[in-house]
Amino acid sequence: EVQLVESGGGWVQPGGSLRLSCAASGFTFTSHGMNWVRQAPGKGLEWVSYISSSTGSIYYADSLKGRFTIYTDHAKSSLYLQMNSLRDEDTAIYYCARETFYDFDYTMDVWGQGTPVTVSS
Amino acid sequence: EIVMTQSPATLSVSPGERATLSCRASQIVSTNLAWYQHKPGQAPRLLIYGAFTRATGVPARFSGSGSGTEFTLTISSLQSEDFAVYYCQQYHNWPPLTFGGGTKVEIK
Fold this sequence. Notes:
The complex is a heterodimer. In chain A, 0% of the residues lie in helices and 55% in strands. Chain A is built from no helices and eleven strands. In chain A, a hairpin with a 4-residue loop joins strand 7 (68-73) and strand 8 (78-83). By secondary structure, chain B is an all-beta fold. Helices cover 0% and strands 49% of the residues of chain B. In chain B, the strands form two sheets. In chain B, strands 2, 4, 5, 6, 9, 10 and 11 form a seven-stranded mixed β-sheet that branches. In chain B, strands 1-3-8-7 form a four-stranded antiparallel β-sheet, with no helix packed on it.
């Protein structure tokens, strides 16, 4: 079964750090780029970051540059998001999502259940 | 950045009725448009990509249309499991990937 399982969320004070993990199974991890997407309370989905499996390209939402770092461990089939200098507005459920191209169409076709992050004093 | 705008924010529909959801892009995105379904406590689910191609396992009652800047997701006959929030998302020009604000389809 193709599956993504996030972990590492929790409560942290403003200015603190967390590392989120996303364990992949049931597919060849190295064949797919990966994304992080978040949903703040009462809000919609917001793309956070992307890492390519083929080129190593990495992208971030402009609001996050310099605070978050995305990386992978192919040996563990895992995706990570290191979050530093956390702010109240980073409070959200964080989802990892697999990239798949169908011809020239980019999709996020497999998603995890999400891990909640609460930033509060 | 391409801004995606969805309407209405909430759609009240009776089971068995048709639901029509709209999505507008601030710039032309061709057919580089996907739709996702999201239920509380669950993972988002890919429904449509390429503006009109159903993802694997998606029932035929879901259909997408449009190109350029105007898109529509139609659910032909709402089933109980279809009540959820629906998001459009463009991948024509990224980063960033951008989502619309969502349309909540609720039971009337």
